[in-house]
Specification:
Low-confidence stretches: none
CATH class of the largest domain: Mainly Alpha
Helix content: over 70%
Order of helices and strands: HHHEHE
Strand order of the largest sheet: 1-2
Number of helices: 4
Bound molecules: zinc ion
Distance between the termini: 13 Å
Radius of gyration: 40 Å
Number of strands: 2
Length: 230
Amino acid sequence: MTTIERLLEVQEQDLMILRIETEMQDIPARKARELERLQSHKAAMEEAEAGVQAAQAELRQHELDVQTKKDQIDKLRTQQMSLKTNKEFKAMSDEIEALERSIRRDEDREIEIMEKIEASNGSLREQRSALDAEQKEVDEDVKVFDERAGALREELDRLREERKALLDGIDPAWLQRYEAILQRRRGAAIVSCANGVCGGCHMAVPPYQQHEARKQLEMVICGYCGRMLH
Ligand SMILES: [Zn+2]
């Protein structure tokens, strides 16, 4: 076997290793995207829950206001009995009526708020069950990602071990050059120059280089992209 043929075997192994490394690098980001999506739905629900709580607080405030106004009316009615003049009596009646009108407004508003709370609670229940379902899905996906990462790690260890055996006896100068190109390209370092063009950059390869590359005795490097030719 020529050095190039042996390096091509190493390259085959290296390209598999690169593919696995790339997939492994993507896993944390893919997991993060899943969790982020879940987080944004959780945040939306928390906001809706806060809205319901605010409405409940407003409702309680109206109820307190109504009670205060009712107490005030009772007090006015008691005072009214001891009044001497019609004018005073009338003024207090007006005051009571104004309070009663205000109570009706409060109560109308209470009904509106209660209806709003009821509607929000309904949609919250739906959101919560959708979120629970989504949480299950995300948990499942995360589990799949973790299992995949584990399998890839094992595969990577196996390929790296196999690679070591392939290196035995390869000219160190060629190997070093090959590895440098592979690192820089993060892809194929050795390409063919079929039809007179470099298989990496598709530029024309001079005839003498094509000839040398076919013989596979000397290291032939593409003048444009720096890849090794065979
Ligand atoms: Zn090239």
